[in-house]
Amino acid sequence: MTARSPYDTLVTVYGGSGFLGRHVVRALAKRHYRIRVAVRRPELANFLQPLGRVGQIHAVQANLRNVPSVEAAARDAQVLINLVGILFERGRQRFDAVHAYGAEQVALAANAHGARMVHVSAIGADANSTSAYNAEQLVLAAQPSTVIMRPSILFGPEDDFFNRFAALARISPALPLIGGGLTRFQPAFVGDVAAAIADAVDGKARAGTIYELGGPDIRAFKELMQFVLATIERKRLLMNLPFPVAKLQATLLQYLPKPLLTPDQVELLRTDNVVSETAKSEMRTFQGLGIEPEPIEAIVPSYLWRFRKTGQFRRRLA
Ligand SMILES: NC(=O)c1ccc[n+]([C@@H]2O[C@H](COP(=O)([O-])OP(=O)(O)OC[C@H]3O[C@@H](n4cnc5c(N)ncnc54)[C@H](OP(=O)(O)O)[C@@H]3O)[C@@H](O)[C@H]2O)c1
């Protein structure tokens, strides 16, 4: 799609300091792109510098709720990637303001500058009328050639899913099975999603297309909790928490500084988080991009061992 070499291509990564962001920055740096990381607090993004050559990665201040800052970060870039997302609302960080309005500003900037765009959303954005779905619609209206990536839940060393439940298992006698733990997930390795995004930057993805990215295995929430417990070698009760009870708890928990559960998350758990049959048949998947995704067994034990009673030291079995 693009004739420019990566050395001449400036890619702005909004939200590049986040969990997925740092893997995207690493993947782009390996492919020799020039990278501008746009975040609210660039001074906290300096840890990204060693992922590239001297001067290859540069952090600038941008807030998706502030149009001039979005516009300034887009200047002279050939590709804009939007990875900004929030899990809960605080102050002016509202879902509509950040996910929908913010994403639209990035797309408008891409259109104004003739830049290509990659937008990261989430599986399930279509099933529920969420701000993520609104964002997709606004982005495609503003920049129709945008490639949209919808991953299932992400795993990797700094993930918020496996680490969170392993940490909970360390202090709690039971793990909750919201809605009976029947919701199905297709966890995707963060490095694979970063590779898919880098492929889109390379011009290997279809323009104006929504990709759904899930790992090789589909697992119910209960199975994932059993996997966590087996990995960290701990026995815990798996406690059924019906949706209405979970919603009630979440209503209170959402006011914690970093909420363990929010009512929106409970709502999302009502729907399976897996790649759709349509996306599979149209090859709008990892496989369509030529990526063989990693299973959780290959990666997760390499960082969950610290939650075992004996850390990296296994008990003698013989
Ligand atoms: N993690 C998952 O399991 C998962 C699954 C499916 C989809 N996704 C999607 O993937 C994307 C990335 O997720 P993630 O897990 O990497 O999130 P994350 O770790 O929370 O990172 C979010 C990034 O957004 C930046 N940010 C937040 N508010 C901002 C604002 N108003 N303006 C500019 N930057 C802002 C943050 O930096 P500052 O705070 O410094 O600004 C940070 O760099 C999101 O769209 C998310 O919905 C994630």
Number of DSSP strands? 13
Q: Write down the secondary-structure element order.
A: EHEEHEHEHEEHEEEHEEHEHHHHH
End-to-end CA span: 59 Å
Percent of sequence in beta strands: 15-25%
Q: What kind of sheet is the major sheet?
A: 7 strands, parallel
Give the overall shape, derived from the CA principal axes. globular
CA radius of gyration: 20 Å
Provide a compact summary of the structure.
The protein is α/β, with parallel strands linked by helices and 318 residues long. It is 36% helix and 16% strand. The relative contact order is 0.12.
Write the layout of secondary structure elements.
Elements: E1 10-14, H1 19-30, E2 34-39, E3 57-61, H2 67-74, E4 79-82, H3 95-113, E5 116-120, H4 131-142, E6 147-151, E7 154-155, H5 162-171, E8 174-178, E9 184-185, E10 188-189, H6 190-202, E11 210-213, E12 219-220, H7 221-231, E13 237-241, H8 243-253, H9 263-268, H10 277-281, H11 296-299, H12 301-304
Parallel strand pairs: 1-2, 1-4, 2-3, 4-5, 5-6, 6-11, 7-10, 8-13
Antiparallel strand pairs: 9-12
